[in-house]
Design a protein that fits this description.
mainly beta; globular; 8% helix; five-stranded antiparallel sheet; 3 helices; Thrombin, subunit H; 40% strand
Length: 274
């Protein structure tokens, strides 16, 4: 199938469903990750492709991980439902957490997916897409789009995520509860953790944040990770907590430094599985 060269369709290929077994062996955890491409700036033209999500999605870097992408056809279009699955039994060597332990962001070096022999169709977010929150149009009430796997729902046949919509319900320039975060009015469910959040700013889509939690009512207002099981029995408020995309800068700097320090030993960062 030929995908139109529009953000609204191409963005579906920036994300993947991250599956990690529970440490107790009882089921698996599901979350969303998205691809981010950044130059190493080491005097070469080399780049690294990072898979970004929440720390609580990756929660056990010494354990196993699995995610997949659609392959591509001979003419370069996505071969929907024809998967290449990437797995690893211990991904701690390619894992980087945000240097601030209180920030729920982490990533892995997923550059293996870019290797031609894997024939993967993917798209990625780039540095020029990150909002700086000085944009005049980035105001309360602005529409937002976020892509992921809410409650583990997605197009299984075509291996495609779901795009959801809401709007910013706090003042994005003001740190909500004194944290680098803002609130969106949107239904956010488990599995949406790590979803990239976009807004149209000056005619261009910008990455403005990453979903980290949802608000529920359980006696009192509280926030719980969207990956946590059992949320279905709680009363959701239709409000999601989103980490500001500016927090990615420190995470990416740490990840790039780790990649450079490991070169050239990290040629095969994941075990591949067809």
């Amino acid at each position: 199938m030929e995908v139109r060269n529009k953000f609204e369709e191409q963005v579906f290929f920036t994300t993947t469903r991250i599956t990690i077994p529970q440490p107790n062996g009882n089921g698996t955890s599901i979350g969303t990750g998205f691809l981010y491409n950044v130059p190493l700036n080491d005097g070469t033209d080399r780049q690294v492709t990072l898979l970004i999500s929440n720390k609580h999605v990756f929660h056990n870097p010494n354990g196993a991980i699995s995610f997949n992408f659609n392959k591509k056809t001979a003419d370069g279009n996505p071969d929907l439902g024809n998967l290449h699955t990437f797995t690893g039994q211990d991904f701690s060597g390619i894992y980087t957490e945000h240097p601030n332990p209180n920030i729920d962001l982490a990533c892995i070096n997923a550059s293996v997916i870019t290797q031609e022999e894997h024939n993967v169709y993917y798209r990625n977010v780039s540095p020029n897409m990150i909002a700086n929150f000085n944009e005049e149009q980035l105001n309360p009430g602005v529409d937002v789009w976020f892509v992921g796997y809410p409650a583990n729902r997605f197009d299984i046949s075509n291996n495609l995520p779901l795009l959801r919509k809401g709007y910013v319900s706090s003042i994005p320039r003001v740190n909500f509860n004194a944290q680098d975060q803002f609130i969106i009015d949107a239904q956010v469910y488990q599995g949406s953790s790590g979803s990239p959040v976009f807004a149209s700013v000056n005619g261009r889509f910008k990455l403005i944040g990453i979903v980290t939690q949802t608000m529920i009512r359980h006696g009192r207002l509280q926030a719980i990770p969207t990956l946590q099981t059992g949320i279905g029995v709680e009363q959701t408020l239709g409000l999601g907590i989103v980490l500001k995309s500016t927090l990615l800068n420190e995470l990416i700097d740490s990840a790039v430094a780790k990649v450079i320090a490991a070169l050239p030993q990290n040629d095969e960062p994941l075990i591949e599985e067809e």
